[in-house]
Amino acid sequence: MEALISILIGILTAGGVYLCLRSHTFPVVLGLTLLSYAVNLFLFMMGRLVIGKPPIISEQAGSYADPLPQALVLTAIVISFAMTAYIIVLALKARTEMGNDHVDGKEVR
Amino acid sequence: MGLAYLTLVPFFGAILTKLSTRLGRYSSAWVAILSATLSLFLLWPLAIQVWQGETIIQRIGPWLPELGIDLAFRLDGLSLLFSLMILLVGLIVVIYARYYLSPRDSMGRFYAYLLLFMGSMLGVVLSENIIQLLMFWELTSLSSFLLISYWQQREEASRGARMALTITGGGGLAMLGGFLLLGNMAGSYDLSDILLAGDAIRSHEHYSSMLLLILLGVFTKSAQFPFHFWLPNAMAAPTPVSAYLHSATMVKAGIFLLARLFPALAGTPEWTWIVSGIGIVTFLTGSYIALFKHDMKALLAYSTISHLGLIVALFGIGTPLAVVAGVFHIINHATFKASLFMLAGIVDHETGTRDMRQLRGLRRYMPYTAALMVIAAAAMAGIPGLNGFVSKEMFLEQVVVYGDTFAPSWLLPAIVTAGAVFSAAYSIRIAHNVFFGGEPADLPKAPHDPSSGMQIPVAILVAACVVVGLFPAIAQPLVTLVAGSALQSAPPAFHLAIWHGLTPALWMSAVALAGGILVYRQREAFFSLQSLVDGRIDAKIIYNGVMRRLFAWSSAITMNADNLSQKRMLWILFVTAIVLGGYGFLSGGGPLAGNRAMLPVDPMSAMVAIIMMAAALATVIMHQQRFTALILVSAVGLGVALTFVKFSAPDLALTQLAVEFITAVLLLLALFFLPQATPDEQDRLRQARDIVIAVFSGLGIAALSYAVLTREYETIADYFIANSVSGGGGANVVNVLLVDFRGFDTMGEITVLALAGLGIYAMLDQLKLLSPKQDAEGRPWNPDTHPLILATFSRILLPLAMLVAVFILLRGHNLPGGGFIAGLITSAALIVQYLANGVEWTRSKLPANTHPLIGYGLLTAASTGVASWYFGYPFLTSTFEHVHLPLLGEFELASAMAFDIGVFLVVVGTSLLILINLGMIHQVSYLPRIGKNTGGKEPKPARAAAIDKAEKTTTKKQEDMPWKR
User: Fold this and answer.
1) With 70 as the cut, is the pLDDT of residue B543 above it?
2) Chain B contacts of A43, Cβ < 8 Å?
């Protein structure tokens, strides 16, 4: 399972990096979304893979998954939503003011 | 505490003046007058104690306890003199400025800055701790910057302000270094200890570097050669500022420090040579250049530089009598120079010019001003009977004594006499040139004496010049007191008097006066001589050259790193990360896999993982078809939610699901305004390079994940798990972490969220977007905006969804849920209403503006935190109580719940703000299209009308809200 998840995170990262290097805004936003999935998963995995032991205290449960990465990732998900929103609106604004949707406003070599 | 209060009063006054402008134009002047008076009133009882020979030290408390630095204030003779100068001259200038400023100038802003300066300057002279002193010192530089650039629209004002800040700020930085060294040598940052540690300091191996650093601060602040040039450029400030900061107080801060640290630093050859050398050079150059300035204020600026040089030279000479003379000249210079500046301001105010090539013969039109100017200028020239004469005489005497110590003994007195000649000449010029000789021609305004409000303040200062000049013995006790505290020992016996007999100093004075008259009569010859070198030798030119080179250099560095291409910056970043990470990885040795027991792969997980990988790869491959790519990326997001479910993170799964929905709606909305497809990239080579970078990044992250996941680790989570119920009152550890253990963190995060929302709002405000006519395949957009079935069902669903949100919010502390998730669910439910029923319909049912929601949310969260202060606990300490309610049974009421409600409000407010505003643009842009689709083949009239209507409503909206720009 660990290998599978690692490969998954790797593929998400690779896809995100490739899309971030595109020269139009929308693919870059998609790339950032993929990258944030990868980063959130990666941070979450720092608590190791634990199945069926949610960190909710009860008398029956013997052990729990690590709650700390979960708390960090929860806010990270919401913040990455805010940042995605910010960047997509920035892209809209750039399109209106520059007249194109190139990430630099124009082709730069 | 008294000293702390009297320093703080002007700061509070600064805030009040800004607020008081609503009560009328002159209310801010009253606030300023009252602040200065209140400070004086607070100073009074302490001043009496000091007068009786005490030194008052008031310790407020620890400031930086890790560094052993306490907040402490000190009042002795020296600081008393400066406090009185700051407050009394300040009061006079405040009254004068009330009449000086024109109706176009903002009084509130002016007085706010002036009081800010007054407080900072009081802080400088009253600080016991030198680090605290430095802080106030920098504040004076900043408030001086604000005051110089007060007339912001003037180019020379902002340039002068920048120059002053660069020079004095740079000096302040050097001084910080000097102070740290000094504190180290003395073993304390308190002045009381430093003043006693003089011998240890002077014999320390780093004494010279420390002295140089501190003197850099002193010389830049007090405009000493070669840093003098900022002062004339600071004359772009309004004249009251020049009178107050740039002649009476701030430029004397450097001299204050020389006097303050005199017992600790003075008495070495380094001190004597550097300080007296720079002082005398400044005295000579300043008085020479002053003569050639045609602008009255520029002349006064250079004369100030020259007089500051004189005082610095006295402290450099460093005999007790020289210190006495220096202290006396500080007082005299403040009185006559402040009045001269204000008189120049009056002339400027009443005639519209300060150019002495235009001004002449004004005495017939402004007799009172002329009389005041003649007296003040005579004091500056050092004519017997006025205060300038007495202290200048003492200076000349010290120069003669000091000049004897090295050969040739006539050299120094000769140089100083030359300086005094020019000093007399420019003093004569500013009075004679302006008020005598011929008729004024081509003045912008008809000159007349100003209102008494401008004259009385000046008259008070000029009267002081005369009284002290005629009866210098009046000043004797004050000078004795101040000199005593500067020397930290009883000053030598001296006698302030006009007549000391036929001393060499008297002869030098006579020569200076006669020479001055001669030079003034022959001034045209000097002017033409000077015009040969004018504009060639100028420190300002050197400064500008240095600054230009500095800017060119730094922008060259920036442009080398960043050619404004995002792609380039990003691939450099990625490649650097890969190279560094790869190097660290490979050089570390050790196996990739650890020895943690691995989990078996079940078919369901394998399937989900494979779907996610496939969707991610498909997103990349099909990214040019944007709509498809968007669907695919959402599929990955749902897969991430499932992963959270699988690995025991129900809270994360719920959050991810809700965010996924909102993000999808947002991206769809945005995509409407963007091209529907991405054009092919031409450059295959670059594409290949990007693929290589991407593959290596993926490999690196995968390897890193694998290495981490297969190793055991130590967690700090045990503490949280053990204390969640007992300490936080909740069984859901993730939620307790968010709202309790790491509540401060969450507080920061919701603030970021709120700021992002407001930033988006600002960007979307007034934005006009291009709407596409058809989709990627060339089909026109469906005109049926609000499908009936969706609209009907969404209305039924809303209350249910809200119920779920409340349920999730309330149970969050014990079971998966909480403010974040409940907020996202609420937003999702409301957004569905917008989607199904349209913005107009929904806006009529719901509050249109969600800003208040964000504000209330932040306020709720913050006040929960602050409430714990009230009970004596640190910020955001939570408490909980078990309550029993009928029917519902036992449950807990945690204060963290209030915090979570704050989180909830911010999340709802922000996500709605973003989507509604984007949706509203959508609506405005979409309206015309309805006309097109229903209007048949050539629907121009209908469409044009619709556009017209849409535009009219938007322009009308703008007119109604002129502040919304």
Assistant:
1) yes
2) none
How many other C-beta atoms lie within 10 A of the C-beta of residue B422?
28
Q: Which residue has the tokens 């400023």?
A: B101
Which of A22, A67, A86 is the closest to B720 by Cβ?
Answer: A67
The tally of CA atoms less than 13 A away on the side-chain side of residue B630 is 22
CB B474 within 8 A of CB B116: no
Contact B289, B282 (CB under 8 A): no
Which of B559, B573, B605, B640 should we substitute to test contact with A (largest number of A Cβ atoms within 10 Å)?
B640
Q: At how many degrees (to 10) do helices B387-403 and B452-470 cross?
A: 50
* A94 at interface of B, judged by CB pairs closer than 8 A: no
This model of the complex carries an ipTM of 0.95
Question: How high is the pLDDT of residue B923?
Answer: 60
Cis peptide before B962, with omega less than 30 degrees from 0? no
Distance from first CA to last CA of chain A, Å, rounded?
A: 44
Q: Is the CB of residue A98 less than 8 Å away from at least one CB of chain B?
A: no
User: A interface mutation test: which of B659, B662, B709 has the most A CBs within 10 A?
Assistant: B709
Cis ω before B941 (30° cut-off from 0)? no
pLDDT digits (tens, 9 = 90+) for B193-224: 999 988 999 999 999 999 999 999 999 999 99
**Among all chains, which residue has been given the structure tokens 């015009």?**
B531
Distance between CA B413 and CA B26 in Å, rounded?
51
CA neighbor of B163 nearest in space, from B245, B230, B217, B231: B230
Distance between CA atoms of residues B640 and B755, nearest Å? 27
> DSSP string covering B238-282, please?
-HHHHHIIIIISGGGHHHHHHHHTHHHH-SSHHHIIIIIHHHHHH
A41 touches chain B (CB under 8 A): yes
For residue B848, what are the CA distances in angstroms to A101, A109, B603, B840, B902? Answer: 30, 45, 48, 10, 20
Indicate the burial class of B240 (C-beta count within 10 angstroms; 0-12, 13-18, 19 or more): buried
How far apart (Å, rounded) are the C-alpha atoms in residues B804 and B798? 10
Cα distance between residue B382 and residue B825, in whole Å? 82
Q: Do B678 and A27 touch (CB under 8 A)?
A: yes
Asked if residue B569 lies in contact with residue B562, where contact means CB atoms within 8 angstroms, the answer is yes
**Which tens digits make up the pLDDT trace of B457-469?**
899 999 999 998 8
* A chain contacts of residue B620, beta-carbon cutoff 8 Å: 15, 18-19
- A24: contact with B, CB 8 A cutoff: yes
d(CA B353, CA B118): 29
> Does the beta carbon of B645 lie under 8 angstroms from any beta carbon of chain A?
no
Place of tokens 């390079």: B689
Rg of chain A in Å (alpha carbons): 18
Tens digits of residue pLDDT in B832-859: 888 888 777 777 777 767 888 898 999 9
What are the C-alpha distances in Å from B156 to residues B163, B222, B352? 10, 21, 18
Residue identified by tokens 């490969």 is: A7
* Res A83 pLDDT > 60: yes
Residue with tokens 């969050």: B812
B672: which 2 tokens?
């409407």
How far A59 CA sits from the closest chain B CA (Å)?
A: 11
Residue by residue, what is the 3-state secondary structure of A82-108? HHHHHHHHHHHHHHHHHCCCECCCCCC
The model's confidence at residue B948, banded by pLDDT at 50, 70 and 90, is very low
For helices B650-673 and B819-837, give the axis angle rounded to 10 degrees: 30
Share of chain A above pLDDT 70, in %: 97
- Evaluate if residue B920 carries a pLDDT over 90: no
Q: What is the pLDDT of residues B53-105, one digit of tens each?
A: 888 999 888 888 887 788 999 999 999 999 999 999 899 889 889 888 888 88
State whether residue B617 sits within 8 Å of chain A by CB.
yes
